[in-house]
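Example 3.2
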Amino acid sequence: MSIVDLGHVQLNTRIDGAEGAPWIVLSNSLGANLTMWDAQMPLLTRKYRVLRYDKRGHGGSGTPDGPYSFAELCEDVIGLMDHFGIEQAAWMGLSMGAMTGMGLALTHPDRFSRMVLADGRADMPEANQGMWDQRIAAISEGGLAAIVDGTLAMWLTQDWRDANPDRVAEIRKMITGNDPAGYIACCEALKKLDYLRYLGGITLPVLYVVGSEDMGAAPAVMREMAEATPDAGFVELPGAGHVANINVPDAFDAAISPFLGIDG
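Structure, written as tokens:
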């Protein structure tokens, strides 16, 4: 891993895969760090050189003063790509990473070849915004420990959590290891999420992936997003919660492989 100083923020990064291979950039969900993609690395590195990063306020990255905006989160990505000399890349993001991808598809379409957008909605209705205020208040009072149990319940189905207690403990540590101020600053960006009405302007190939049990970005919501995006694909993964790539990694890999041009 290495820290890249973009001037306005320092971002923790990791690169895997063969030099000279086409690039793919991976973007994590709110509350996660770049290790959330570990299960996908054997698949992705068969074809791609993979750039992972911790978004601002998460993992090993710095925490500039908030609140944050998706415009800033998108420019962080472009700064990283410029730093590493990446003219164009594929993209895969989950939850907040998917939302960042939507912003990049609309503002920097020339920098991306295709996008997997997983478990992330495209807007934040007013009825949902109060939930973020409640979460911010809980973290302000009790830190990330105050929201970790609810987060785990949303991310991963009960049967998976029961069967994988050691992994659940690791994921709990990942969530609570983030900077509370950075988490809150990202919540402020989520409250203003407003890409749904622009999805018809996306010109890149897009594959939407969602877990059937996702309570954060429901399958019906993401199906509507796919219908609004020209020529987009849509895959629903049975028995998966919000972080589908961890909950059902084999099914997730099988869903993304054809779209990303990875054989077998």
